[in-house]
Amino acid sequence: MRKVFAFIALLCTVCLNVQCQKAEVHLADGSTVEIPVDEIDSITFSMTNPFNFETKTVKLNSGYEMPIIGIGTYLLSTAQAEESVYNALKVGMRLIDTADIYGNEVGVGRGIRRAMQDFGIKREEIFVTSKLWTSSFNNADREVDERLERLRLDYIDLLLLHHTAVYDEEAYQVLLRWHLQCGTIAIPGSSNAAHIAEDYDIFDFELTPDEMQRINALECNHRFASY
């Protein structure tokens, strides 16, 4: 039976608007206020960041646990995607991100099945994310069926409305850790097995409040996508 567990998940009690350098804070009484980012210190973030760094997951509003770091497959061929997904699951990652527009869902599914067989991983331990491109929003039911056929899976854990994100590769581990401490799920992409392992090796250090502020100050209001 086909299932899609969620379309969109609101993850944080503090939502950053980087372009405006403001934070949208959802209060316990249901009201919302906007506060300049520079007025929110790291203590506030540590109290509101819903990420569990022990289990490496975050609980979505739907009640499901989503891994906070995984493997992205953008720009990977079918064969590369298969190997990247396989190596990601091998090192412990459990979040797999793909999309129809990537053209590699068949490889992603192969990598998942190989890893399940070789490492004894259960399907319910893996969180698979796919996306609908803007032209497919009105045909979601058919599009999901086609994705499941290509992936050869019974369900997708999270279906997103597609808009790509770009990550800076310089000092990548620090940047990935910064994302997590800000309360943002990170999905770096790589076809290199060693790099995939390094992307996941970010739980043995923590950025200090001063380091977080210095990275936040790098904001240059530059848009990396033209659509």
Question: What does this protein structure show overall?
Answer:
It is a single chain. With 227 residues, this protein is α/β, with parallel strands linked by helices. The chain contains seven helices and eleven strands. The protein has helices spanning 42-48, 78-91, 105-119, 140-151, 172-182, 193-200, 209-216; strands at residues 3-4, 14-17, 22-26, 32-36, 57-59, 65-67, 70-72, 95-97, 127-132, 155-156, 158-161. The strands form four sheets. A four-stranded parallel sheet has the order 7-8-9-11, with helices on one face. A three-stranded antiparallel sheet has the order 2-3-4, with no helix packed on it. Helix 2 (78-91) runs parallel beside helix 3 (105-119) and helix 2 crosses helix 6 (193-200). The radius of gyration is 18 Å and the shape is globular. It starts with a strand and ends in an 11-residue tail after the last helix.
Q: Give the strand tally.
A: 11
Give the overall shape, derived from the CA principal axes. globular
- DSSP summary: helix tally: 7
Give Rg in angstroms. 18 Å
Mean pLDDT: 81
Tell me the helix content. Answer: 25-40%
State which percent range the strand residues make up.
Answer: 15-25%
Q: What's the SSE pattern?
A: EEEEHEEEHEHEHEEHHH
Helical/strand content category: alpha/beta
What is the distance, rounded to the nearest whole angstrom, between the alpha carbons of the first and last residues?
35 Å
Strand order of the largest sheet: 7-8-9-11
- List segments where confidence is low: pLDDT < 50 over at least 5 consecutive residues: 1-20, 42-47
Largest sheet: 4 strands, parallel
